[in-house]
Structures are given as C-alpha cells and as structure tokens.
Amino acid sequence: MWLHVAGELLLTTSCAWAVVAALRHRSVLAALGFALIGIAALLGALNYAGVPDTAAPHDTATFLAARLGLLMVAAKALIDMRRALFIALACAVALLVPETAALAVSALALVAICWKGRSVRWPLAIVGAALFALAGLIIGTRGEWLQIPRVDLYHFTLAIAILVWIAAGVAVKARRA
C-alpha cells in the first residue's frame, strides 16, 4: 500500500507545482485542470492510507478529473466570453457523454495541449501528451506488470507527464505558431 500512497502523493505534488506555474502565467483554466487531477490524487492517497470515508469522494474527484482536467488544461488560453461559454458547454457535455466519447474528448484535448505554438517547448509538450496517453491507454489501473500494480505505474507516469509539461511551459499563455 505504501507504493499506492507514494504514487498518489507524487502525482499530487506534480499537480500542485503545475497549478503554481499556471497561476504564475495567469492560466486559470489550466490551474483548475491540474487542481482537479491533484485533488483526485490527494483523495486517492488518503484512501490508500486507510482514511475512512474517502473512497466515494476519491471516485467522484477521479471522474471529474478524467472528464474535465485535460479539457481545462487544453483550454487555458481561451479567455474571452464567447470562448469561455464554449468551454463551459464542452465541460458539461464531457460530464454527460459515454466513456468512449469522453476518451475521444480527452484525446482531442491532448492534441490541443501539444499543438505547435501552444507551449514554450513544443517537443516536450508532445512527450508529456504521449506519456498521458501511455498511462491511460496502455498501462491502465487494473492488474500488475512485473509484480508492480499497474495503478502505481499509471500514477507515476501521469506525474512524470505533468512534470514534463511544466518543463514544456504548457501553462504559459499560447504563442502564435
């Protein structure tokens, strides 16, 4: 169990760092997206540590982070009202669609995050997006690989992806490509 807690705390820490970086660059939507992921990870750490009554909040936070986190990070530079309303609508739809459609929304968000000109170091943004996709599509959260729970590999991979995105400057306001 200690590995579960460590993975969740590493993800929480990387998300907190990303929130600070996003707020420093006034990317409030990106900060909210990273915060959603970080809150889910923190609740997961508490749940794995045996804190009572944290399973349901962790499940809810994980659902919200999975459906909205990447979408909000991708929408970081959309600040005018018309676009903000579009993002609010997209978030509402992301909460209601079936799992396969939500996966497609997340894939589109990953493409938007690593689009050339949307970060300071574009190749690193691609590496982070690839790590995110690897975590969700290949590693997953069920079973084990080489006697290591996949859920731990999943959390470590997400934490590394977010750290790579910080280095890429994903939370920095978009530049012209």
Structure description:
With about 180 residues, the chain is mostly helical. It has one domain (about 1-170). About 75% of the residues lie in helices and about 0% in strands. The chain is built from seven helices and two strands, in the order H-H-H-H-H-H-E-E-H. The chain has helices at about 1-25, 30-50, 55-75, 80-95, 100-115, 120-140, 150-170, and strands at about 145, 150. Strands 1-2 form a two-stranded antiparallel sheet. A hairpin with a 2-residue loop joins strand 1 (about 145) and strand 2. Helix 3 (about 55-75) packs across helix 5 (about 100-115). It starts with a helix and ends in a 9-residue tail after the last helix. The model has no long low-confidence stretch (mean pLDDT about 90).
What descriptors fit this protein?
single chain, 177 residues, mainly alpha, 75% helix, 2% strand
Q: Categorize the overall geometry.
A: globular
Sheet with the most strands?
A: 2 strands, antiparallel
Mean pLDDT: 88
Separation, N- and C-terminal Cα atoms: 45 Å
Structural class: mainly alpha
Which strand order do you get reading across the main beta sheet?
Answer: 1-2
Instruction: Specify the oligomeric state.
Output: single chain
Short description:
It contains seven helices and two strands. It has 177 residues and is an all-alpha fold. It has a two-stranded antiparallel ribbon.
Helix and strand arrangement:
Layout: H1 2-24, H2 28-48, H3 55-74, H4 81-96, H5 99-113, H6 122-139, E1 144-145, E2 148-149, H7 150-168
Antiparallel strand pairs: 1-2
Helix pairs in contact: 1-2, 1-7, 2-3, 3-4, 3-5, 5-6, 6-7
